[in-house]
UniProtKB/TrEMBL annotation:
Organism (species): Ganoderma sinense ZZ0214-1
Keyword Transport in annotation: no
Region (Disordered): 1-27
Family annotation (InterPro entries): DUF6533
Full protein name: DUF6533 domain-containing protein
Record's keyword terms, sorted: Membrane, Transmembrane, Transmembrane helix
Amino acid sequence: MPSGRVNTSFQPLTSTQSSRMDNDNGSSEAQFVATQQSFIADYYCSLAALTLLVFEYAITFDREVALFWKRRASGASVLFMLTRYISLVTYVVRTMFLGHWSCWRYDMNLENK
């Protein structure tokens, strides 16, 4: 019966465990390609969403200036600005790191061949 505890300690795989996993789960190259394709698809979806987000910010910027920037700051306007621009910065950083990760892994694989 499980104790309900989660093991959070990290233990790297030994070379025999790693080779056994490769043999049990099929080709490691096929797994790498599938993972790489997943990263790239996620990157392109994130890039498309970021493009739509920036477009929406661009077409509503004049209303934002008129309604929020030219008036005295209130709690609601501060909350609006924080929500609006923190989400933009978060999405930009996520997309940059996701793109870097997918390209880095692919370049690393090419260098090893």
